[in-house]
Amino acid sequence: MPTFYERAHVSPAHPLSRNFTSWLLPTPFFLAYRAIICLYAVLVIVVSNCLRPAQAGPRFSYFTWLTFWGITCYLLVSLAHTFSYWRNGRAWLESWPRWLQFLHGLYYTTVVVLPWTVTAVYWAVLFDRFKSQYGAWNNISVHALNSVIAFLEIVVPRTEPIPWIHIPFIVVILGGYLAVAYITKATQGFYTYAFLDPTRSGAGATAGYCIGVLVATIILFSVVKGFIWLRVWVTERKFGFLGRFSAADAREKVDDGVEVKNSV
């Protein structure tokens, strides 16, 4: 009986093929799906910056917007990889140095984990009320639809479970943002989030909030990892959906010694 990862690395032979193929959507439809989501994410950023140009710079001090920009850039990069795979049967990602491939995998982890932290903190701690139709659309896009995008990236591609080794990097990212928040206070005179202000409820409460966000994010990491494992187990082991591959991919597709038919 093959191990999970032996079975998970169904052809296309390169394990990174899981990042630009889907168990459900044929490659052209998977490409279109990513293009539509990417277009909407870009639209949110463009409209927000055009309607509130004075806020364009300060937005980079907010974890919400840093995360949303991260999602958008990931979608753009993934769209390019998916397009190259659909067009040539090979993705650019496959020819990248191993350290860049690792960083792409880490990038994927941030996209499927951190939006849940943003959504949870906003609706549980920060939400008051929508003051305008634009405010409602903007906040729903970056504080709710961000997690919808994360969910789709968990469910639709053939990505394998995110590795535990990524947790220290997530901790470093959160710690790095904490530094950004206090640099913003020192240079621009405001706290990006009220719970980071120790003068409001005390340093102990602020530290508690920070530790709580960290612990919640690690828990969310574990949940996402488990959900991806479940998706792979259900779709591939139970129902045999081993992937929808590009017609341009001529590589041999074998799973447990049985040829897997190519499909576009």
Task: Explain the overall architecture.
Helices cover 66% and strands 2% of the residues. The protein is mainly alpha-helical. The chain has one domain (4-259). The chain has a two-stranded antiparallel sheet. β1 and β2 (258-259) form a beta hairpin. It is globular, with a radius of gyration of 20 Å. 30% of the residues are buried. The model is unreliable at 1-13 and 254-264 (pLDDT under 50).
Any chance you could write out the topology, listing elements then pairs?
Blueprint: H1 4-8, H2 27-51, H3 63-88, H4 92-95, H5 98-126, H6 133-143, H7 145-155, H8 167-188, H9 198-201, H10 203-238, E1 254-255, E2 258-259
Antiparallel strand pairs: 1-2
Short note summarizing the structure:
With 264 residues, this protein is mostly helical.
Keyword list:
two-stranded antiparallel ribbon, single chain, 264 residues, membrane, globular, disordered N terminus, transmembrane, mainly alpha
Terminal CA distance reads 29 Å
The geometry reads as globular
**Spatial extent as radius of gyration:** 20 Å
The helix/strand order is: HHHHHHHHHHEE
Largest sheet: 2 strands, antiparallel
Derived structural class: mainly alpha
Give me the count of strands. Answer: 2
> Which percent band covers the strand fraction?
under 5%
Q: How many DSSP helices? A: 10
Low-confidence stretches: 1-13, 254-264
Q: Which sequence of strands runs across the widest sheet?
A: 1-2
Integer average pLDDT: 88
**Overall helicity:** 55-70%
Total domains, how many?
A: 1
